[in-house]
MFS transporter
Amino acid sequence: MNATSTAHTPQERRAATLVMACVGVFVAYLPVTTVSAGLPAIQRALDASTSQLSWVSDAFVLPMAALILTAGVFGEVHGRKKVLQAGLALSGLGALVALCAQNVQVLWAGQALAGLGSAALLPTTLALISHAVPDPRERGKFIGLWATALTAALALGPVVAGVILDHADWRWIFLLPVPASLAAMACAARLLTDSRAPGSRRLDWPGQLTAALAITALVYGIIEGGAGSFTDAGVMTALSVAAVGAVAFVLVERGGPSPMLDLTLFRSPAFTATTLIAMISFLGLIGFFFVLSLYFGMVQQLSTLDAAWRLLMVSMMPLVLGAPVGKLVHRVSPRLLIPGGLLVATAALLSLTDIGADTSFGSLAWRLALLGLGMAFVITPMTATAVSSVPFHQAGMAAAANNAFRQVGGALGPAILGALLSTRAVHALPGHLTGAGLSGPTVRQVTSVAESGGIGAVGGLDLGADTPRVLGALSEAFLDGLHLCLVVSAALTLLAAAVGALLLRGPRRTARPVATGPRPAAAQAPSLTGGPTAG
């Protein structure tokens, strides 16, 4: 046996697949919190309006949410290694464009390219694991490590941004994905062999177009409606297009010969539950993180790095517990793990409803850690159950669908909760201004600025001796909005727990590979890893 063949045993190939999957999802998720933490610095440097600033994040999320299903199909038809490499290349290119941006429009373009890369990486990395580890009992452990890498990216992002912004220009927060993508591409070229889904799967262009149209129009309509008014003609048109696109997608997928999303997957209660839980819980939780970041900046006046340490309390628990929880997936019923974790997260969110402007780090820390503990028992079991609840050959499709629903929820969360926060704060502001002893003309001036430019615009007013009282009233009004958002987030998380309790029954037994004999050649999943093919 030559050196090349002995260097890549099945165990080593599987380990290499896991490493590349973890690196891929790390690169995909790193921009999410890095950019969010850097938004105040970007706004100051580029003199961006609130609307322009919101699209810095949304330009990344929108293509990711719209094209995840499409990217999953491309991987199954054209090869998962090719799509992984393309995703890494787009992520690195997008970061490079953002790194060189001199205006907000170029920054949007860079974020959109990075979002396309993440759309390719998320379903492909899970599909690599699913096919390298066909036994669902063992797969949970590997998905736990994948979820740990995802959480590590979310945890590291704000810290990286905080350190860089303390010492350098805002553009340098985009540097890390560039060498990370290049190194991952080089390793993938060496370690992975290409693979496709078994059978005669073909690209489903009508399904891909209608899905992208529906998701894009929905997210755009919610974002613009939250920033302005849901009665605007453009917003109503976008939401109408989303509804028509969703209906068209269902009709196309029901009659298509090779559907992008086989709707029969929803006959599995566990798959249906995990997709709904992914969307509902991430809508509430990502929206909560958005308003919490604003609380740290606008109310507590914390630096980027100080805010990052507080957010780290949430992400540390899933980071530490991701792999151990993965081992529990097939020992403890997901009907207990997932709703139980969501109930803990609900309790943590409700415990935060009494926070104020002077709430200490210690008082926040245990509640944020409790929220992270709850999510640690949701993220890994949710993903593992979605993949294991369908037949083996549909695991990649299930992974892409779960990620798509998760990203749609994550995209809608900041828009919906941000609109709630702004509406409640603006409504409460006049009362707090009056309570602070300010005169009628000052109250009307500040309220007018808040109604036209948002609550952030009030913070820039210079009203002489009245400024401290105005800022104090603004903080109180913001807290009213924050407390409402916390209650809504808790209600959404509780709803997700109820969905899990009603629908989850555990993975389908048919998801396991048949052990009575070799599979037919057409149904065998090719090896996903290994060194260069020997001559």
